[in-house]
Specification:
heterotrimer; A mainly alpha; B alpha/beta; C alpha+beta; C: 3-stranded mixed beta sheet; 5 helices; 16% helix; binds ligand MGD; binds iron/sulfur cluster; binds molybdenum atom; ET_IronSulfur_Cluster-Binding (chain C)
């Protein structure tokens, strides 16, 4: 087991929640209404983002030099991630500060586009060849699912009555996608190369993994039963995503762990 | 910026451990602190590189675990150590010595045990210190290689091996019970070169060692059956008419008797049955070995640590001799040598104070005692170093009351550890001169901090190769450490303060001066140097007439020939011929082997934090089939136990060992661990060793034990 | 081909003695837990005897280095003149990205400096015409310094069993496979 990289867990999950909220907001504003609540929702988005970014600094050995991380846009997805995250943060800040633009769908769509940039670059950053199980589209898929799930979940707090069912539908869909992804991935790994197989075993033996799946299962059951998203549910789901992400970092086996062994 | 040698002060050092390789070291110092070290490039043997232990020297003087000051322990094994001044420490020690002298009328109550912690020549000052106090009790002998030394002395008249660098010329190499891939890493390049030039490499060992993995053929015979194997090969060579007639007729004595013994008592089938090596194999190898020219055998120290070890070595010597490989470049029965050790032993030879009373019975001398005939009438009392515990318990009139331990770690390296603890508990005072808080230190009352190789001057020779190295003081002693010699001087100062004339050792000693005093013209001529300070330019190699030992066929035996029949051997209570001797009867379920680890020299190095980076814990090695029978899985914690005691460790399953064998490498893992193989090794003697080393060797590998999940 | 310095790891000669690993530590005094060169035993599926054949590995000075590509602050450079991948620790902000990304586990986190570090091929010694500390130390010459542009291609392999096959990175290290002796057991 590697480190669970708590700062990275915070950053990725919170930023994905923020991006998901922005995406859901864009969807809802485009489907009509929603102008009024804009500012509070943007405040939450910006807050999550600030919390995530601050958290992320803790994983740097030298946080004060963080701005230097923008200097290798040429090949480093991490530089790109930082850039997108910064721009996204800027949009959120603008929305909070300038009340008159907060409600504009265009702003939400701009934020969404930048947010997807964050998710894509994070997906690339955490998909290195050194982690064979994740050296594919899975990280991006996991991250996008988290974004949609959390976005729809927390978005339900802000959705007008009329758009609530849309949030519930998207939320339920994301839970199902998440469950399928997380159930299938380790099983597929088990029949892959040695380090993939080790990763599959590590995930299936991990408390993080099962706790996360448990939360998703509860979310599905509740959403199914109530045909709604109770106000507490997004908070539970957030905790579930945090736990799942901790497992993502802690239980994924690095190729270097098996040097001298079969690959 | 590129590396710039001018930023450093460069010193010459030498590894003083009990190791074949005795490497020449270059030490790079900046601001009085060692930055890094490397092997001296001048020595073709060291060839610019050390070993994993050698490179950890950069850490050793600065280890946080080092003993820094003289300390006194309030109650043995309590760990309640108090720092005291050198003066107070010396006061206590000198006081005790005076008390002993008064009580016993002699100093025989003071025992001294020293072995191979540091083989630097000036460190014989420890023995010198004892002599300068009076006649004392000495633990003599060696746990290391004595059976083989005696065997070679009977057969050849001395232990003298070819230059290891000439192994490249061999056409056939047998590594017999040695593991140079771990214990003499610098020799491996010669074996590999011989192999590259077409020689066949056969490794004979009960364990599939790292050395075996580098050979062409690996034989895994029953432990302690080597004599039978060698004799079986000899019989086949005889039958095939492959004996070197010229050698056995002109340069040997007793070959026909040996041949008769072989014909009457030995068959290849018998050897196969004794050893477990198929007869076909024995025949094939015997023929190849006899026909290869030259062919050589490296006789390991590991294989002679048996109740029949000396006899086995004699059989192997015979195999080499009858094929005409003795005295030949690229050939030889290689065991060791002391050809380059002709120093003055100025530090060693000290006069007893006027009127000292000593021992009048027979006394023995150690294998490194090259001072033949230079000592006076009265003598020290000698006891067997290989039975340290028993000797302490048994010695009376006077009993051993006080023990001086230096360059030696009895609790890690001597035998029957439970008994040793009991024995130490009878001692009134134990003084340890040490670098680390070993188990022996834990069983001492006073510990004195000793320097590392970088902090003193000395000179180092090898018992294997023919290079000579100076060891300069590269840094000032850290903390309050003093060299063995300086400690002697400090004690002498105190003794003379309390009772003038009670110690003859000078009260001020400069280790550089004393190093200089060790040299003589013989050394200069042998190495082709004008002055010892020439060694500051790098190590030098002896100017050898031939790389072959015994190249002039003038043997050191009574007959001046190679002695297949040694009457001297018979006089010492053994067989005159290299006959087969059965090994020790088993006393438990599994054979237990406790040989040497690659990460340490005995109790040294494994404890260093740098070393633990690569070697974190000890293991027991066991065959998977044997483990299955006991419900033991890989990496389980197990308990190995026998009549001596028990030891726990995790187990690694491997067919590198046979089903009836357990293997644990000796090591001391440092503070906070109790791992110690001596909990499982008794003090049974080997057959030989008393003749040249002063006491028989130890049957370290004739041990047996059982195992279960812990 | 351009000059590319590389390690030649001859497992036929290697005795797994860890001398190379300690020689590196002796030279750079890495913090506890930080290992630039490690000696890995081959598993029994690859070499049939436990802990008897090894791969001595440090950074592979790849043609297309993952470490360099993923570093957000450009702390890595690949030297034009000899292909050595140098880590410039003073630039590093300790994000850990190279550590996660190098499939060979070459970069390590220094908990005291709070920055990454790795083998930079003793480039300061190379520049002075000396061998790397580890190469010089190896008692069997199992570890050698070679220039891929000039090396005679004979029995070396790039991806032996026990070593991750990362063709995109194109690691420069080359290997000679270990042999087994004839076994005569009772
Ligand atoms: N079970 C088992 N036991 C064995 C063996 C085995 O194979 N198996 N091997 C045997 C063999 S071959 C040998 S040679 C012996 C070795 O036995 P020892 O000679 O006792 O071995 P070391 O552990 O090398 O050194 C002893 C101590 O000397 C200290 N020392 C180092 N330098 C100095 C110095 O300059 N001055 C002083 N005063 N002390 C110093 C070290 O810190 C160490 O604690 O062990 C024997 N014991
Ligand atoms: N790394 C390292 N190097 C060392 C030392 C060390 O402790 N560590 N110690 C130094 C010292 S003091 C010494 S004495 C030498 C020792 O050097 P070696 O003699 O090479 O080493 P050992 O491990 O004592 O024993 C060698 C082999 O003898 C085998 N053996 C045991 N019994 C038998 C037998 O009945 N028949 C046969 N054929 N083989 C048998 C063991 O399995 C082992 O593999 O090494 C020196 N160099
Ligand atoms: S322990 Fe032996 S091989 Fe290692 S440096 Fe010392 S003499 Fe050389
Ligand atoms: S120093 Fe040489 S022989 Fe020893 S482990 Fe390293 S590469 Fe192998
Ligand atoms: S081995 Fe790893 S650290 Fe070294 S160059 Fe290749 S990717 Fe970079
Ligand atoms: S840890 Fe340092 S060198 Fe590695 S990627 Fe991050 S900033 Fe670059
Ligand atoms: S080349 Fe230098 S830095 Fe790299 S492993 Fe070897 S000694 Fe260490
Ligand atoms: Mo020894």
């Amino acid at each position: 087991m590697q480190s669970m990289e708590f700062p990275l867990v915070l950053f990725t999950v919170l930023s994905q929640a923020a991006i998901g909220l922005t995406l859901m907001r864009a969807v809802r504003t485009t489907s009509g209404g929603e102008e009024a609540a804009g500012r509070t929702e943007w405040l939450l988005i910006a807050g999550l983002m600030v919390a995530g970014l601050l958290g992320s600094l803790f994983h740097l050995g030298h946080p004060l030099s963080a701005p230097m991380a923008l200097t290798h846009l040429g090949t480093a997805w991490l530089s790109r991630e930082v850039l997108f995250a910064g721009l996204f943060m800027g949009v959120a800040a603008l929305a909070v500060v300038a009340g008159n633009v907060a409600g504009k769908p265009a702003l939400a769509w701009l934020g969404t586009a930048l947010g997807l940039g964050v998710i894509l670059s994070a997906g690339m950053t955490y998909a290195p060849p050194a982690l064979p199980a994740l050296n594919n589209a899975l990280p991006a898929a996991f991250f996008l699912t988290s974004a949609v799930l959390l976005g729809a979940g927390f978005g339900s707090w802000f959705a007008d009555e009329g758009l609530r069912p849309l949030m519930v539908r998207i939320f339920t869909g994301a839970v199902v996608v998440g469950l399928v992804l997380y159930l299938v991935a380790p099983c597929v790994w088990l029949s892959g190369g040695e380090v993939m197989r080790m990763t599959g075993q590590a995930w299936l033996a991990s408390g993080f993994y099962w706790a996360h799946l448990g939360v998703l299962a509860v979310a599905l059951a509740v959403a199914w039963k109530t045909r709604d998203i109770p106000a507490w549910l997004p908070v539970l789901v957030l905790i579930g995503e945090l736990v799942g992400r901790a497992g993502f970092f802690a239980d994924t086996v690095h190729t270097a762990a098996n040097m001298g062994g079969l690959y | 910026a590129g590396f710039d040698q001018n930023e450093f002060q460069v010193f010459r050092n030498a590894c003083p451990r009990n190791c074949y390789d005795t490497c020449s070291i270059k030490t790079y110092v900046k601001d009085g602190v060692i930055q890094f070290i490397e092997g001296a490039p001048e020595s073709t043997y060291t060839d610019g590189g050390l070993c994993v232990k050698g490179y950890s020297y950069t850490r050793r003087p600065y280890s946080p675990d080092r003993i820094k000051y003289p300390m006194v322990q309030d109650g043995r094994r309590t760990g309640k150590w108090r720092r005291v001044s050198w003066d107070e420490a010396m006061d206590r020690i000198a006081g005790k010595i005076m008390e002993l002298k008064e009580r016993d009328g002699s100093l025989l109550g003071l025992g001294m045990t020293k072995y191979s912690g540091n083989f630097g020549i000036t460190n014989y000052g420890v023995e010198g210190l004892m002599s300068s106090l009076g006649y004392t009790t000495r633990f003599v002998g060696t746990p290391c290689w004595p059976a083989g030394i005696d065997a070679q002395n009977y057969d050849l008249g001395n232990m003298w091996c070819n230059d290891p660098e000439d192994m490249v010329k061999a056409r056939y190499v047998i590594i017999w019970g040695a593991n140079p891939a771990w214990c003499s890493v610098h020799s491996m390049k010669y074996i590999m070169e011989a192999k590259r030039r077409g020689a066949k490499i056969l490794v004979i060992d009960p364990v599939f060692t790292q050395t075996a993995a580098k050979g062409d053929v690996f034989w895994q015979p029953k432990t302690a059956s080597d004599g039978a194997l060698a004799l079986g090969m000899a019989r086949h060579i005889l039958d095939k008419g492959l004996v070197d007639r010229a050698f056995v007729e002109n340069n040997a004595q007793g070959f026909e008797e040996f041949a008769a013994y072989l014909r009457e008592n030995v068959t290849v089938e018998w050897a196969a049955e004794q050893s477990g090596i198929p007869a076909e194999e024995i025949r094939e190898v015997a023929e190849e070995f006899a026909q290869a020219d030259p062919a050589t055998i490296w006789i390991g120290y590991g294989m002679q640590r048996h109740t029949n070890g000396g006899a086995s070595v004699r059989s192997i010597d015979a195999l080499v001799a009858m094929t005409g490989n003795v005295g030949k470049e690229g050939g030889g029965a290689r065991y060791g040598h002391l050809q380059t050790w002709g120093f003055n032993y100025n530090a060693f030879i000290q006069k007893q104070p006027e009127g000292s009373v000593g021992f009048t019975g027979p006394a023995a001398k150690g294998e490194f005692d090259l001072t033949e005939g230079r000592q006076a009438s009265y003598s020290d009392r000698t006891v067997n170093i290989n039975k340290t515990a028993q000797a302490i318990l048994d010695t009376k009139d006077p009993a051993i009351r006080m023990l001086w331990v230096s360059c030696k770690n009895p609790f890690a390296q001597d035998f029957d550890r439970p008994k040793l603890e009991k024995a130490f508990d009878t001692l009134e005072m134990v003084v340890s001169v040490e670098q680390f808080f070993t188990e022996t230190v834990a069983n001492s009352d006073i510990v004195l901090p000793v320097t590392t190789l970088f902090e003193e001057w000395t000179v180092n020779a090898s018992y294997w190769h023919y290079w000579l190295s100076i060891n300069e003081q590269a840094i000032k002693p850290l903390h309050e450490a003093k060299s063995n010699l300086e400690i002697g001087a400090a004690l002498s100062r105190k003794m003379n303060e309390l009772a003038p004339g009670s110690c003859t050792l000078p009260t001020e000693i400069d280790t550089r001066e004393w190093t200089a005093k060790e040299f003589n013209q013989g050394i200069y001529d042998l190495f082709g140097i004008n002055d010892w300070t020439d060694l500051k330019n790098g190590p030098v190699k002896a100017k050898l007439a031939s790389s072959a030992a015994w190249h002039d066929m003038k043997f050191g035996t009574p007959s001046g020939k190679y002695e297949f029949r040694s009457d001297l051997c018979a006089e010492h209570g053994h067989k005159a011929l290299p006959e087969f001797k059965k090994g020790r009867e088993s006393y438990d379920k599994f054979r237990l082997l406790t040989p040497h680890t690659k990460f340490g020299i005995h109790s040294q190095f494994v404890n260093l934090d740098w070393m633990k980076e690569y070697n974190k814990e000890p293991f027991v090695y066991m065959h998977p089939k044997a483990a299955a029978g006991k419900g033991i899985n890989d990496l389980d914690m197990v308990r190995v136990f026998n009549k001596v005691g028990e030891q726990k460790a995790r187990v690694k399953l491997t067919d590198n060992v046979t089903e009836d064998c357990l293997l644990i490498y000796e090591a001391w893992f440092g503070k906070g661990t109790t791992f110690n193989v001596q909990n499982l090794v008794d003090d049974e003697s080997a057959d030989m060793g008393a003749y040249k080393a002063g006491a028989p060797g130890v049957a370290i590998h004739d041990q047996f034990a059982d195992i279960e999940r812990a | 081909m351009k000059k590319q310095y590389a390690f030649l790891v001859d497992s036929e000669r290697c005795i797994g003695c860890f001398t190379c690993a300690m020689a590196c530590r002796n030279y750079y005094h890495q913090e506890e837990g930080v290992v630039w060169r490690q000696v890995y035993p081959l598993s029994e599926e690859i070499y049939p005897h436990r802990e008897r054949a090894f791969l001595s590995l440090a950074c592979n000075h790849c043609e297309d280095p993952a470490c360099l590509n993923v570093c957000p602050v450009n702390a890595y450079t690949k030297r034009e003149e000899d292909g050595v991948v140098v880590h410039h620790q003073e630039k590093c902000i300790g994000c850990g990205n190279c550590i996660r990304s190098c499939p060979y586990g070459a970069p390590k986190y220094n908990p005291v400096e709070k920055r990454a570090e790795k083998c930079s091929f003793c480039h300061e010694r190379l520049d002075a015409g000396l061998k790397p500390a580890c190469v010089q130390s190896c008692p069997t010459k199992a570890l050698q310094l070679v220039d891929l542009a000039e090396m005679q291609q004979t029995n070396q392999v790039q991806y032996p069993a026990g070593y991750p096959k990362m063709e995109k990175l194109n690691p420069s290290t080359r290997f000679i496979l270990p042999k087994t002796p004839k076994m005569v057991r009772r």
